[in-house]
Amino acid sequence: MLDDKVVLITGGTGSFGRKFTEYVFARHRVKKLIILSRDEFKQHEMSQMFPQDKYRIRFFLGDVRDRDRLYRAFNGVDYVIHAAALKHVMAAEYNPFEVAKTNIIGAQNIVEAAIDNGVKKVVALSTDKAVNPINLYGATKLAMEKILVAANSYVGTKDTAFSVVRYGNVVGSRGSVIPLFLKLIRQGAKELPLTDERMTRFWITLDEAVEVVENALVESIGGEVFVPKMPSMKVVDLIKAICEDCRVKIVGARPGEKIHETLVSTDESAYTIDFSNGSRQLFVVLPTLFCATKIAQKYKAFKKMPEDYPYRSDGNDLWLTVDQMKEYLRGFGNSYEMNHE
Predict the structure, then answer these.
(1) Which CATH number is 45's domain given?
(2) DSSP structural state of residue 10
C-alpha cells in the first residue's frame, strides 16, 4: 500500500516515528518519507541514522500549531501519520492551554491541511487516557479523536479519510514509566515508587504499535477508532521484572492518575465490534455521527461487543508475566534513555 507513495509523520523524531521509519524502509519502497517535527537537533540525529543519500527521506521543520507550515508540508502527500503531541500528564496540568494548542488546535490544523491538499488517509495516535479522561492530557486526546472522526463528515467532494489508533503504554517509549525505573536503578536506588499496589496498565511494544497503525491505514474507511487487543500487567509485577531485589514504596496516586486504564468504555461498547481475524487482533469503535454505507458494509459481518462491557486493564483476558516482561526488556536493552519526543 505504501509503495511509491509519499508518507508524512508528524512528531516523526519521537519513539514511534523512528520505529515507523525503520519499518517502512524495511518493508516498503516509498516514493518519499517526510519527517515533520519542531526539534532540529533530533532531526540531525535521525538524519545520521537515515542518511538522505541512502534513504528516500526528507526532514521538515515545523509545528502542528502552525497551519500555514502544515499546508506547505502536506503538498503532494498521500498518507499522514499524526504522532505529534504534548504528552506529559503533570506538565499538561500546569500548562493546559499550551497542551491544547498542540493536541487540539494542532489536530484541527491537520484536518484542514489534509483535506485541502488531497491527502488520501490520516491516521492519528491516541491513548487509553482519552477514555473517560480525568487529566488534561487525556481530555485533549479525547478532543483530538472527536475532531479526527468528525472530519469525515465534512470532506465534501474530497477523498480524504481520517481514523484513529488508540493504545496503551508503549514498552521502549520515553513516555512510559520504565525509563524512570531504570534511571533510578542506575542512580543506585534500591526502592522504587508505586502509587498503588492495585495499579494495572495495558502494554504494547513499538513494533506492535507500528503494525496496528499500518493495519489502520489499510483497513480504514474513515471515522474508525482502532483499538488493539493488548496484555495487561500489574505495575508491582513490572517492578519485579525490572529489579527483583528492589523494594516497593507506596507513594499514593498523583493528581489525574487512574488505578486502572480503559481502552473501550461501557458507553462505546454498544457501537464497538471485534475486528479480529487471525494475526489481526483488534476492536474497532465505529463512528456515531454518521452511518456511511461503506462503513456499514465493511463491518456488518463482525461480532459486536457486549453492551456495557468495558475493555479495562484490570478485567483483561490477556496478562503479561514477569518473565515475558523481562524478555521485552532484554529486547530493548538500554534504549529507554533515547532522546525521543
Answers:
(1) 3.40.50.720
(2) E
Domain encompassing residue 305: 6-168+204-229+263-312
Helices vs. strands in the chain: H and E counts, helices first: 13, 17
Q: What is the DSSP string of 120-171?
A: SEEEEEEEGGGSS--SHHHHHHHHHHHHHHHHGGG-TTS--EEEEEEE-EEE
67, three cell numbers = 497551519
Average pLDDT, rounded, for the chain: 92
The pLDDT value given to residue 245: 87
Q: Which helix (H) or strand (E) holds 165?
A: strand 161-167
Which cell is 106 given?
494542532
Which residue bears the cell 465505529? 286
Count of domains for the chain: 1
* Angstrom distance (rounded) from CA 8 to CA 84: 11
Of the residues 5, 42, 87, 129, only one is catalytic, namely 129
pLDDT tens for each residue of 161-189: 999 999 999 986 766 788 888 888 889 88
Contact 86, 10 (CB under 8 A): no
270 part of a folded domain = yes
**Strand 282-285 versus strand 272-274 pairing type:** antiparallel
Would you call 19 a catalytic residue per the annotation?
A: no
Burial class, 134, CB count within 10 angstroms (exposed 0-12 / middle 13-18 / buried 19+): exposed
Please give the model's pTM, rounded to 2 decimal places.
0.93
